[in-house]
Amino acid sequence: MIQVYTGNGKGKTTAAIGLAIRSLGAGHKVYLMQFMKSLAYSEQGLLRTLPHMTLETTGKPFFIAEDGMMDEKTKEAFGDSVVIFPKGHPPADYVALLSEGLRRAIAAAATREYQLIILDEINVALAFGVLQKEQMEHFFEILPPETELVCTGRNAPQWLLDRADLITEMKEIRHYYERGIPARKGIEN
Question: pTM here?
């Protein structure tokens, strides 16, 4: 089965990690690849200690965004921690880095030892064109039918939604970021 957690609201990664914990509790093996994340998120330390849990990350310690996605105020707030690129032309080093991450996830799926595979923020990588549909098609060919797959991130492409067995859309109604409250350790990171 393929599950997709998407939308502009908070909680996609959190929901996937909750499912990972449930799966681990059932005695399953879980593989989690976090795309576009290399910073030390609070959950990573704990997840790495859990038996039967494999956690990998790939990305750089900055955000990427397509030109025109951010207003000047938002760009200022991010400062040097964001790289803006022309639509359809993501940074080549980022493409190589995330492609290698997907190759590692494909290799994990090919072992057939995981009952749950989570590709965290893969939807964003696909939406930005950092990863391509063809790369995911190869992943789907390798994925054992008994393995549950969860794809998270905003802007899931329609072809992925069409393939999904379950789609959950997280919808932002109100967010404290709008009041200038930054990410908090243990809550957002």
Answer: 0.89
User: Which tens digit of pLDDT belongs to each residue from 103-131?
Assistant: 999 999 999 999 999 999 999 999 999 99
CATH of 2-59+91-171, one of 2.40.160.60, 3.40.50.300, 2.40.37.10, 3.20.20.10: 3.40.50.300
Count CB atoms within 10 A of the CB of residue 11: 15
Residues 121, 123, 172, CA angle at the centre, nearest 5°? Answer: 80
**Helices (H) and strands (E) in the chain — how many of each?**
7, 8
Q: Are 149 and 183 in contact (CB under 8 A)?
A: no
CA-based nearest residue to 52, from 26, 15, 19, 13: 26
| Mode of pairing for the β-strands spanning 53-58 and 148-152 | unpaired
What span, in angstroms and rounded, lies between the C-alpha atoms of 1 and 146?
8
CA distances from 127 to 31, 153, 166 (A): 22, 9, 19
Instruction: Give the DSSP letter string of 129-170.
Output: TSS-HHHHHHHHHHS-TTSEEEEESSS--HHHHHH-SEEEE-
SS3 73: helix
